[in-house]
Amino acid sequence: MRSSRLVIAALAVAGGLAAAWPALAGTATLKGFVGPGFSIGTSSKTVAAGTVKLVVTDKAAIHSFHVRGPGVNVKTSIAGIGTKTFTIKLKKGATYRFFCDLHPDELHGSFKAT
Asked: Given its phi and psi angles, is residue 72 left (phi above 0), alpha (psi -120 to 50 degrees) or beta?
């Protein structure tokens, strides 16, 4: 009796993971970077609309990576370095702009949600 309950519990957990897997697998990833030196960018100029994982690598203690657009306003700190991950929701057809808060005229770019 106890072993059958364990089997049923294991199957329930496996079923829940299987149901969640497509949503996790379907999340797009966009990579962003700032530094070293005066450089900023993303891995793509177009990104599928919807939920996106934005992974930013910040290699400069004098820059930030700030993204703004419809429903999105996320950034790394100016003094901080390292990797930071954001989950953002992009609207189809919208343009999103990224820039350094200290150097917006020199370090900037954009990508579009398709």
From this structure: beta
From residue 44, alpha-carbon distances to 3, 34, 66, 77, 101 in Å are 51, 14, 16, 23, 21
Which tokens go with 28? 């797009």
pTM score, two decimals? 0.77
For the chain, give every domain's residue range.
27-113
CATH no., domain 27-113: 2.60.40.420
Which tokens belong to 72?
A: 């999105």
3-class SS letters over 52-103: EEEEEEECCCCCCCEEEECCEEEECCCCCCEEEEEEEEECCCCEEEEECCCC
- DSSP-assigned letter for residue 1: -
What are residue 88's DSSP bridge partners?
Answer: 52
pLDDT digits (tens, 9 = 90+) for 48-73: 999 999 999 999 999 999 999 999 99
- How long is the chain? 114
SS3 for 9? helix
